């Protein structure tokens, strides 16, 4: 993906988050482990493949993961989200809902937190370069 297209995609996701199109408020009636309780079953092989692609030391998301890892909050949120199986969810809304407990646990209380931009970059790579490894098709 070109830098222009990537910048445009990041801008779109950021606008959607900030505009409230992606609901980042906690769900009042959802259990703390919404991903597992919603009936989503994590396939161990698929999870390993996706995790290696997104968080691998030599995977296609190495630069995005390195930037996230360099920020303590982003690192903790990304690992927490991966541990919950959020990487395997295909819709951005589902990924966000699944990750909400991780965001809250690590003190991300605002859509304007700089960590969000790092996490969005990592997620864009997951949804682009790692889409097939993460169960999203071609």
Task: Describe the protein.
The chain has about 140 residues and is mainly α. The protein has helices spanning about 5-20, 35, 45-55, 60-70, 70-85, 90-105, 115-125. The two termini are about 15 Å apart. Mean pLDDT is about 75; it is low at about 1-40.
Keywords:
138 residues, mainly alpha, 0% strand, disordered N terminus
Strand portion: under 5%
Q: Sheet bearing the most strands, described?
A: none
Quick one: how many beta strands?
0
Radius of gyration: 14 Å
Number of helices: 7
Quick one: overall form? globular
Secondary-structure-based class equals mainly alpha
Mean pLDDT: 76
Please give a quick description of this structure.
With 138 residues, this protein is mainly alpha-helical.
List the helices and strands and how they pair.
Layout lengths: L2 H17 L14 H4 L6 H12 L6 H8 L2 H12 L8 H14 L8 H14 L11
